[in-house]
Design a protein that fits this description.
This protein has 144 residues and is mostly beta strands. 4% of the residues lie in helices and 32% in strands.
Length: 144
């Protein structure tokens, strides 16, 4: 899973393919998986995504070798949808976590994830005008 915008080239078109660096279970090394397709011959994104430009998420179902690659799974059941947001009474001020990589902190031998903590700063229950069109708005305030 990644942000759709990281799959784009400088000219705004989707990349043809990417490579993925994964940590190995030995705890001291990594390897690259190359040639992961991103767009087809017409430039259309092949990953699972929403066509709405305001939704900046793309997902590629990609099998990893569980015997050699170190990774953690987040089950879909932990994802929040509109029903979960209402039933669990998610509101402004609730804690958020953001996990990612920072290019200036890549190790020579492996990836080092960066975990940030913050709060849900804004959550509308109606569509409002935003820079990318009318939509329900969520603002996450995260330290970096």
């Amino acid at each position: 899973m990644t942000a759709k915008h990281v799959l784009k080239d400088a000219d705004g078109s989707f990349l043809r393919e990417v490579k993925l660096r994964v940590n190995l279970k030995d705890g001291i090394g990594s390897e690259f998986i190359v040639g992961i397709p991103v767009s087809d011959a017409q430039g259309k994104l092949m990953w699972l995504h929403d066509d709405n430009d305001a939704i900046d998420v793309a997902l590629m179902p990609f099998p990893l070798d569980t015997k050699t690659v170190e990774f953690k799974l987040i089950p879909v059941s932990m994802f929040a949808d509109e029903t979960t947001l209402k039933s669990d009474k998610v509101a402004e001020g609730d804690a958020l976590f953001f996990i990612g990589l920072m290019t200036q902190y890549y190790g020579e031998k492996k990836n080092y994830p960066v975990v940030r903590r913050g709060t849900l700063a804004l959550m509308t229950d109606e569509q409002i005008d935003t820079p990318t069109g009318r939509q329900n708005a969520f603002i996450a305030e995260l330290a970096s």
